[in-house]
Amino acid sequence: MNRRPLTAAACCWIVGSGMASLYEGSTLWLLWAGVSMFCPLLVAIRYVPWTRILILWLIFSLGAAYWIYNDGRNVSHIPDALHADRTVPMVDGAAVQAEGTIISAVEIDGDRVSFDMSLSMIGLVNSSGSGTNSLAEERAAAGERVTVQLRLSTIEELEIAEKWRRGEDIKLSGSLGRPGTATNFGGFNYFDYLHNKRIHWLIKANGASAVENAAGSFNTATFFGWIDNLRAGIGDIIGRLFPGWQAGYMKGLIIGLSDELERDKYEQFTGLGLTHILAISGSHVAINVGLIFAALRLCRVTKERALLVVFWFLPAYVLITGFSPSVIRSGIMSMLGVYLLQRGLLKDGLNVLAAAALLMLIWEPYFLLNVSFQLSFTVTTGLVLFVPLMVPYFSWLPQKIRGAVAITVAAQIVSFPLTLYYFNQFSLLSLVANLCLVPVISIITLPVGTAALLLGMIWLPLGKWIAYPIKFLNSATFLVTEWLNGLNGFMTYWKSPSLLWIMAFYGGVYLLLYCGSQRVRLHQHATVTAMNDTVPLLPLQGMEMQRGFDDRSFRLAWKRIGIRVTLSAMVVMLLYTGYQPVNRKGIGHVQFIDVGQGDCILITTPSGKNILVDGGGTVSFRKPSESWRDRKDPFEVGAKTVVPLLKKRGIHSLDAVIMTHGDQDHVGGLQAVLEQFPVHSLLMNGSLTDSKTVTKLMSTAITKDIQIYSVSRGMTLKPDELTTFEFLFPLSANEGTGEIPYIKEQNHESVVFRLQMDGVSFLFTGDMDEAAEQEIVAMEKGNQGGGSAMLIDVMKVAHHGSKTSTSATWLNYWNPKMAVISVGATNSYGHPYPAVVERLSGQGANILRTDVDGEVQMEVQAGELRVRRRLP
Q1: What pTM was estimated for this model as a whole?
Q2: What cellular component GO annotations does this protein have (predicted)?
Q3: Are 126 and 94 in contact (CB under 8 A)?
């Protein structure tokens, strides 16, 4: 604490705030009491003076109290303003009129417009279209933030929406709604995301006519609106300097506008761990500060005046590049560094980093939960601590590149656990990509691109001339990233590690590097001594003393080797356990993933085999003339829901994918699955449908050498001793014809199979219709010689509970104990059909629905079935 008091204080504050954010109620107080009782123990063993412990304990407690205080105030007052209790559901969906100020950049994507709004008044709308609340009650929610989601009605309304700016006062009419929560285990939680932005409600509106501009005055949002206009103007110049997709790339690189980069280009960077290049951070700040300082010194500006210019440049740069947590951190650290450098007080980077962290967390405690904040501070701290330990390992490299290599390797190690936690993937080529591309981009692309921008502001042709070589360099950069991403076998998928695993990883790697660097330094010192010094001969009587010294050195060397081996084994064991999937071996798992209106089931056998049944799919009824409504990155359930969940659960490959039939809501999401995961085999119903989705899916399977099998009644699949798939439908009528038939109506051709897993039976039905049900029942009875009905533990209800299936005859034959209906919460088909639900209830089946229960997960072990639901 004497050497780094701010660092110790920041650590205690973060631990206190983090503990309060993770736990609440009695659990939090028990943990606080445990930490409090541990502090006197440190004093008792004289490890730390009691005054120091007392100060750190107070900071730790203040951090926890400050979080509790702020989180307790983060509640909505809108129900009070609307005459309703917070628990009354009528507020959700109520028609409201609101007035307020736009406080975020207005994002337009296709026909969708979104922005955040600070309310000044809000009221319910009655049947006559006027508000009903008194002015005092409306102002109860004044200052509260809401997110506005507006859907444009016509293409002409795009021009109106493009004129909306942050800082404008508006009047708005729409419906009030709660943000959705995660409906899948481990899925993205929009409710928590908005809660951390202090937003509790959405206002949804249709048409630009729902928004009316109102007279307003200058405020902070207005100032940021000017910054938005400035950024847009700078982005326009970049767009004129660089063609096509390069404009989006350079906007992200220079001013942090990465949302305009083409999706495939962004995914190339993501796959190789290069997205930090597009997030304005310390390296960007350092390069720009270095360029400005060097230019000023070349113009014979004094060092003191040059530092003063740099100091005032930094807040302007932070604003222009988007005001994200990473760039705020870099700006604060740089400003503190410049100030301390002028005063001759800059001695420890960790204290400067700690000061920046404390300032940001006191200003906004929810920064602690921000991914950008966590990555920025963790990586920067890791570089300060790890780079000095790694430099000795690269002593064989030339001195000019030794530090750069150590920084790159250290950054990869430090960011590794957080990359796994948030993104669940890591490319083994990430280090190679960062070593090869980051120096080129940092030393050439970014500085020259910035120079082209500045000169282009003065005279556009000159900027284009400067940008000309960068265009070729950008093309070469993405050729390299495309080639590296195209190499198979280097992408690994990891489950999200626990906080304990992350801390153990950092501790183990640090101690291992520390012990290793000490050994390297001693070896280097001994080598230099042997080369430069003359060792005197020892007298004969000193022989015994030297032998004893050698024995102690030998024991000490073996002790150090033992420590390094133990630490290495610990790190390897951590990596091994972290790479294991969430679904444990020895237990069977059947997981009905909520993909809205569609089917997607992940089956994991007791031996660890993974079989995916369907993949959901986004259904669009949009006409070609409405292409303007298409979003830059449209929501696709396979890429946005199924693939992230498979990664988060540590699924490394799929042993089989069963495509029950060719309808979009069952196979649309499989395209993303086949593109990103190794798939060993694809099972289908033996027919195709004339759709672009199925054609592309089959082409991808052939390109990736995935074995394609046509399944039919009588076939079985036995992935392990405790699991058997028995296919009941379709019939093998087309076998031997040599042709794959095209059948438009695929529901009747759905793959139907019975799964027997460790003493529990499941029946999967796709979208089969009643005719198929009758055929199966007739054949099953024929095989049994007209025997009694079967008994199934779990039935996946066909066609999302449609009235065209799940007949009384079908239910009477199978007698399911439990029925799962995979159905969208807001589907327009009326699924599940009330009569189907009644038949299931009459049969005594326990009904689970993904629209009500969210994801349904089942564990199977020794004939026992355990069920849990995502939504209570």
Answers
A1: 0.90
A2: plasma membrane
A3: no
